[in-house]
Give the backbone structure.
Amino acid sequence: MFESAPKLIADMSNLTLEKIGKLAGVSRSTVSRVVNNHPNVSDNVRERVEKIIKETEYSPNLAARSLASQRSFVIGLVIPRSVQVFFGDPYFARLTQGIAQATNLHDYTFSLFILENREIEDRLIPRITRPGMIDGLVVQSTSADDKVLSRVINGSIPYVIAGRPLEYPNVTYIDVDNINGAILAVEHLIQLSRKRIGTISGPQNISPGLDRKLGYIHALEKHGFIVDENLIAEGNFTEESGYQAAKQLLPYEPDAIFAASDSMGLGAIQAIKEKGLQVPQDISIVGFDDLPPARYSTPQLTTIRQPILRFGVAAIEILVKYVEDKITTPQKTILGVELVIRDSCGGKQ
Amino acid sequence: MFESAPKLIADMSNLTLEKIGKLAGVSRSTVSRVVNNHPNVSDNVRERVEKIIKETEYSPNLAARSLASQRSFVIGLVIPRSVQVFFGDPYFARLTQGIAQATNLHDYTFSLFILENREIEDRLIPRITRPGMIDGLVVQSTSADDKVLSRVINGSIPYVIAGRPLEYPNVTYIDVDNINGAILAVEHLIQLSRKRIGTISGPQNISPGLDRKLGYIHALEKHGFIVDENLIAEGNFTEESGYQAAKQLLPYEPDAIFAASDSMGLGAIQAIKEKGLQVPQDISIVGFDDLPPARYSTPQLTTIRQPILRFGVAAIEILVKYVEDKITTPQKTILGVELVIRDSCGGKQ
DNA sequence: TTGAAAGCGATACCAT
DNA sequence: ATGGTATCGCTTTCAA
């Protein structure tokens, strides 16, 4: 004892339960209980051990823990190959941030798998889907019948799909209320007495594209408007596509446009300005997302705010429950959205 | 044998070296050698074992492998707490993507640690810096004397700093040639016969802020210009700060501005337009980064392109060499940048 | 070339 | 409440 203690303090590089135990005068079992917050530890022992853990900055070896417990304490976010834009889109950056944060708060390690090309996809799918490597997966939903999506859904690892997957209605997913968001947007325009309300929708093979257009149509019909196909154009969520889509709509003289993303809304504003028209005087614009650019544009964009960070947190909370409670019943979660009124629609009080 | 073989094939969920060995009639040691491509295995044994591995889709348990080999096969990207903007900045999204891709290509798993608040920082730093958890780290450089930076630099895990760390001149880092980029930008403006060339610099406590301003001054002096403090304003790389800085410069009638980031350049363009002036007719603008928004602005932004994806790839290549060859000598890598001429400076041929 | 066996550092069951 | 010990699945000497 006399000789070994100082030595142990010296080589902090390889701290183990055993060494902490020696320093605290208890067995490795007891230290393990302290680390894992097991109830059966007396208060003074717990205190003593915790003090030493703090002093030495001990933290358990994850490999050993994984091997013994048959859990990896890793949660992965998977971006399928068919997600084209990916990191060009600030949405994914925020999503990643939210999920990483929530993962760490639950004491899991966060791993990111971007399957950006076939080579990486082939290499990673077996690793990702093999039981034991990863405790839980968040998989970004996609349009196509993506390889990784079906592998995960049919595999045995707990997962949550981020975004409603059109092809798999009966799986665990989390999404924002796209339909209601679109309705909020359009009803705002209706309240401002706009009569020719157009939309720039997203691609119709992914749920945000589909649902936001559905909401647009629903709101119009609910308020007795006639849906005019000439006032509907399709983009792919990028600014450039919004610009093009707006050019397509302008000949039909809309007095308002609901864009299914902020980026497309900003593109539309540019097209409108180039035509010599003014936002919001001549045409009102509502976007969707409320990402930072919406606040810095001129005019500032009225938009539908989706809680991206909360989305990540909620996804991880669901996932952790699945992992730790071994639930398997599919569960759907829809997060609310809200209208954020700025300057691109006029009529602000 | 008769009874156990079918059983083993049945429960593929828990394949181990031992079971593969039993199926192939060899020991676990031999199977391990086959899996790890060790030379000392006879051809027919290797063949037999590989066949079974393929049939059973066996893949080794990473936790066990890590524990035994004292390597985790994980490479982490650390975003220190003092990196304020983080994911609002498209730069980090691209950086993350490049590093994730390169990491996977080298058969490591990619983990992301965003130390966005003190709680997460306290929780993660011991884990990150503890030997054995992570084989190598890429750490984003920061301004302040950040806790995690000094811990990593003084620790024993191989690392590469992304961006020149001002406080630690003698560590392994990778950076882009900020000084030369700024020189390219300013010389372009000089060639276009601009006489009153201002700059919107970044914060002077981080290297991209410092170096790009140094390059600006260097280029002016080299060409016999007098550096006018009134033509220098400081931003923090955001669009909003560029807008404000431009407002500060305009009374001194610059005919060109070198903005140390695209975002600040875009903010400057907005301020200039609001003042009733035109870009590039009245004032030329050069940005820095060449992120997507530079291409979608009006006018399209002339800028300095930095190879962010290559940056990530290069960082991982250096890191992997450090990890696998156990090198420890500090190494500095500077990547070249290039001028991308678009419409914000005029004089385009 | 191959096999046996000793770790790696946790967890968790079983005694006490 | 605490300690002893088998165990997780692999890597890696050391013998044979």
